[in-house]
Amino acid sequence: MPTLAIVGAGPGLGLSIAKVFGGHGYQVALISRSKDKLDGLVAELAGAGVTAEGFAADVADPDALTAALRSAAARFGRIDVLEFSPHAGLTMTAPEDVTLDVLRPQIDSLLYGAVAAVQAVLPGMVEAGSGTLLFTTGGGAVSPYPMLADANIAQAGQRNWALNLHHTLADRGIYVANVAINLMIAAQAPDGVPHRAPDEIALDYWHLHTTREQAEHVIGA
User: Are 209 and 132 in contact (CB under 8 A)?
Assistant: First the structure.
């Protein structure tokens, strides 16, 4: 059975993506910091008939993240699809207020974490001649939001790298795409707030993986 690894797994979009891929026969490796949260997600997926296992690691710790992904590959055989969507925490930071201390947590989690995750799974994909790398960013990676300047910087770097990977890995059978979500991920939202349910958004990830064409998919205005 093929395997999906979700870095930054949570009860929202991550769980929905796991259910969609699991419904198509994928085993799922879930990675986040909290073992208790992972245990709950694994139990919920088991109830939906999806084989899953959690691997606790902080995405900002490259060694721990690499070890978790290698453990997942050893458990399931190899990683066929990597979905990277950790949450580094949002701070309301104007562009002129960005400092190294403010920016570092975002860079460590969103950019360095993405590099560490890809380096852990890419050799196996190259050897197999197939694989999918799906990155998730906010809409600010494409069109910056001044009040989220620190996250915008890190996500824009992640997006730039993902688009470069899309073009350089295609001839080796590896598909890469960035998903920029520019709305609230929720089944319901206050009046006038653009939103979309996580179960619906998750279907877009499956479509990207199966069609293997777009370098980027923007969700929302």
Answer: yes
Question: pLDDT per position in the chain (221 positions), as tens?
Answer: 999 999 999 999 999 999 999 999 999 999 999 999 999 999 999 999 999 999 999 999 999 999 999 999 999 999 999 999 998 667 889 999 999 999 999 999 999 999 999 999 999 999 999 999 999 999 999 999 999 999 999 999 999 999 999 999 999 999 999 999 999 898 888 888 889 999 999 999 999 999 999 999 999 96
Q: Which residues are within 8 A (CB) of 120 and not within 5 positions of it... i.e. 6 or more apart? A: 65, 66, 69, 70, 73
3-class state of residue 134 by DSSP:
strand
pTM for the whole thing? Answer: 0.96
Return the CATH number at 197.
Answer: 3.40.50.720
Instruction: Look up the domain containing 124 and give its range.
Output: 3-219
Reference 13, options 212, 208, 205; nearest CA is 205
Three-class DSSP category at 132: strand
Closest CA to 201 of 130, 115, 134, 114: 134
Q: Reduce the DSSP state of residue 107 to 3 states and report it.
A: helix
Domain count, the chain: 1
